[in-house]
Each structure stands twice: as C-alpha cells, then as structure tokens.
Amino acid sequence: MDLIFQQDNLQKQANKILSELNLVEILSEIGEVKIVGSLALGLMVWPDIDIDVCLEEIKNEGYFKVVQYLFIQPNIKKLVISDDRNLSEDLKIRGIPQSIYLGVIYKIDEQEWKIDIRFVLSLLDRAEEYIKVTLPKLTAVNKEIILDIKNQLFLHPEYLNKKLSSVDIYNAVLDQGIKNITEFKEYLYKKSGINL
C-alpha cells in the first residue's frame, strides 16, 4: 500500500473518531487540548492518536470525569489509567513529563485504535514545541522516508518496549540525513547501542 495514501486515510479516520467521541470538546472542559504526535505531524503509520491536555495544576477530579465519560461510550473496549507524576530519574532524563495518563482502545469498523491522553502541567509540555520545530523540516521526500522506516519498525520489540520511539526516527531523518532503514539501524546502533 502507498504509505502517503495510508497516512492520509489514517488522518481522516482519526479526525472522524475525535469527532464521534466529541473528545476535544470534553477534554477542553479540563484544560488546553493539543493534538500531538504523528497525527499532528502527518506521519501516521498505524491507528494511534496522541493528545496532551495541558493544565496549570493536575487534579484527579477532571481526570476521572473524562474516565467516566469514556467508560460509557459504546466503542470503547479498554481503558488504562496510570499516574506518572512520580517518575523515575531515567524517564525524567529521557524528557518524559510528569503526567496522568489515560490509554483508550476504541474499536471502529473492525479496527482497534489506540488513543493516548496525557494530562500534563503546561510548563512541562514539550510536545507542541517539538511539532512547531519539526513541521517546517518536513518535505515530501523525507516524509516518505520516515513513513517507510516507521512502517518497517512499528511492530519491532524495541519499539513496542519503548526503547525506540518515532521521535528517534524523525530526528535521524530530519537532523542526521538518514535515508533508509539500513542507515537508520546503523545510526541507532552507533548512537544508542540498540541492535535492530
């Protein structure tokens, strides 16, 4: 399948899901909603939506209001809740912000979508800034390279275990000039010792 066509189709489906769930409006009652990740960058390879809800103060009340709302929606198949306000030093060093996480599995047309919602302190949110810096660097050529590498790696155990992220791929292509999966594997091994 053409990866650009697949990406555009996933974008349309993601926006349809957000609309069907009325999710942006519901989350906006709690804080400032920012669509981030591959949906914001136009680099989707799999059915995944990332949302940050930026707050001046993280309160359990708003968080659980969203949990209750989603719990009764008919196509929600699973909710995962996680309090990530007391992170390990390793995660802090990797730039993971303190937050409360809500993972959603939403099934539509026989396809499961993963929706990651982070309730994060505004001053710790870096995702929007990353998008602003990254979007101007994207060209038709490097976009296809990124989609190809992501498509080949998204089921890899290192990816699934969070030792490798999409941002690693974006930075390698956009900042280091990586052109294909072979070059990326070599780059990643030299940089991080991860052997794909």
Describe the structure.
This protein is of the alpha+beta class and 196 residues long. The protein folds into two domains: 3-124, Beta Polymerase, domain 2; 138-192. It is built from ten helices and five strands. A five-stranded mixed beta sheet has the order 1-2-5-4-3, sandwiched between helices. The two termini are 24 Å apart.
Shape: globular
> What is the share of helical residues?
40-55%
CATH class of the largest domain: Alpha Beta
The span between the termini is 24 Å
Mean pLDDT: 91
Q: Can you say what the CATH homologous superfamily of the largest domain is?
A: Beta Polymerase, domain 2
Largest sheet: 5 strands, mixed
CATH architecture of the largest domain: 2-Layer Sandwich
DSSP helix count?
10
Briefly summarize what is shown.
With 196 residues, the chain is α+β, with helices and mostly antiparallel strands.
Produce the secondary structure layout.
Elements: H1 3-21, H2 23-28, E1 32-36, H3 37-41, E2 48-55, H4 60-71, E3 76-84, H5 89-93, E4 99-108, E5 111-121, H6 127-134, H7 140-153, H8 157-160, H9 166-176, H10 181-192
Parallel strand pairs: 2-5
Antiparallel strand pairs: 1-2, 3-4, 4-5
Helix pairs in contact: 7-9
List keywords for this structure.
196 residues, alpha+beta, 2 domains, 5-stranded mixed β-sheet, 10 helices
